[in-house]
Fold this protein.
Amino acid sequence: AQSVSQHNHHVILSEAASLELGCNYSYGGTVNLFWYVQYPGQHLQLLLKYFSGDPLVKGIKGFEAEFIKSKFSFNLRKPSVQWSDTAEYFCAVRNRDDKIIFGKGTRLHILP
Amino acid sequence: DGGITQSPKYLFRKEGQNVTLSCEQNLNHDAMYWYRQDPGQGLRLIYYSQIVNDFQKGDIAEGYSVSREKKESFPLTVTSAQKNPTAFYLCASRGTGAGTEAFFGQGTRLTVV
């Protein structure tokens, strides 16, 4: 069955530190890949997505992610985090049957 | 405003009662989804629908039912067979086309007492 694994459940960083959140998926066919963010008390918002072309994609608020097909990975990165990045981050995969499966999420806490 | 509306925001029901959660979208999207969000579990797919009058089970469909009689509406019924119905429920929709993402509603928090 299709699955998405997020390796870090809870990450604590200081402001200006670099961030990398891991995401691996199990589906072998063509996929669309997404990172969503859920700020406290707010609804899920799209950070960035990959569906074809350049495997390095840039999203909002300085986030980027790299699709590595051979590793079935789509890791999220940000060079320098801010206190306002405190949120929960979800990786998601859509397969050709239109199912969109999410990982369990990573809670990111930025210390001011 | 275009978007996805879930109502109500909070819902309380007694154990053994069925309850229906509403999801309406005016984005003209074909696909719609229902997820359940529990702490530490992420979002788990309950049902999804790619087109009117058709829907498929997700990973945790047991104890839930859906209908898709209109493009803009995808109500979810939590039946008395659902063993642990208290949760946060999220509805999403997605347009057609390669690489389109899902847009989410604000969610409904269901508490069964």
About this structure: The mean pLDDT of chain B is 94. Chain B touches chain A through 26 residues (CB under 8 Å). The CA atoms of residues 28 and 72 of chain B lie 7 Å apart.
